[in-house]
Amino acid sequence: MTKSLDAHYRAVVVGGGQAGLSASHYLQKLGIDHVVFEKNTVAHKWKNERWDAFCLVTPNWQCQLPDHAYDGTDPNGFMVKEEILAYVDRFVKKVNAPVFEGTSVTSLEKVGNLFRIQSSAGSVTADSVILATSLYSQPFVPRAGERLPEGITQIHTADYRNPAQLPEGAVIVVGSGQSGCQIAEDLHLAGRKVHMVTGNAPRCARFYRGRDVVDWLADVGQYDITIGHDGMAKKKHDTNHYLTGRDGGRDIDLRKFALEGMALYGRMTGVSNGKMLFQPDLKSNLDGADRVYNGINALIDRHIAEKGIDAPEGSPYVPLWEPEAETTELDLAAEGITSVIWATGFTPDWSYVGLPIFDGTGYPVQHRGVTGVEGVYVLGLPWLWTWGSGRFLSVGKDAHHVVDHLAAHLDRTRRPLKQMANG
């Protein structure tokens, strides 16, 4: 670990998660002096923002960090929390990045041909900067939470660990994305009464026609499609499909949960007088999720037919349950609700970046991690380049490309660098 700051670095990496560490790996291979600033600890989110029953939703074989591919005995399984932490910890030790932990970056600005980075450990200049802080910096909780009755426990998914941490009583989970659905299942399996507030999150089958859907999609080439393809630009804002790797992997079907006693609602619109209010769009939300589910399976059907693959027969999903009526308000006290879990996502924190690299929505404008400001790069964003850009699958490939480009930038502006090895 780095003990003291130099005045100048050829590169500064902001963020010590999987993206920042991947960048450091390739920077070290080129001998580019650099420092990594991490406001918490390396791999903080994996260590401190995952619940006890957390597991991967993609097969272990998709864990492809740089020079650190999964080499365990169950490539088609799904690592549980302890196994993921061990995998990440081995990567952290292998990279041995020059990282300053507990160090926040408070400003980034351009001064002449250099960049000035002010951090809680001091100020440095750099020839280049890689922003690897992801879109998940700050847990987002709607302001409606301020109007919930006193005495109701409120936590974000980042702070949820297990059902036992919540007071006795019913729980309402707001948000049906990947984390929300898995936590709702965790509570449901523990015998808690769960109320689930849905949104427009899509869903995906776990297994179809004899194989994991992820394996089929890899064969089809879905993980190689780039954001540059027609109609793909909007993908960067898409919600992840919900499914799970728990207990060997299975679908998450909210309709099945409803048959088992889970209460479902449309999108939340607010809180008033002890009641949570909803849009009458539950059926639309469920139908939309199933439409994506069946669409993915139809894509696999076409692939099997075109390639003449011998596989078990498949069929479209048929809804197991339909809402009889749309509930638009819920009396929290009457339903015995004592806890609310906000599965409402995160917001990025780019407040320290004083550079013109953002679009009108505050999202970095970039092409495969390269921004419009020469020498400034971003890494680790969902759909930075492909479906796997924000995950173990492809973050290393993105980091390799970014560092390759960064090296060429340094070569043009300062002393030459040795060529990066292919890989």
TrEMBL record:
Cited InterPro entries: Auxin_biosynth/cation_transpt, CHP04046_FMN-dependent, FAD/NAD-bd_sf
One GO MF term: monooxygenase activity
Official protein name in the record: FAD-dependent oxidoreductase
Pfam families noted in UniProt: Pyr_redox_3 (PF13738)
Listed Gene3D superfamilies: FAD/NAD(P)-binding domain
Signal sequence interval, chain numbering: none
Keywords, ordered alphabetically: Oxidoreductase
Domain of life, per lineage: Bacteria
UniProt KW Oxidoreductase keyword: yes
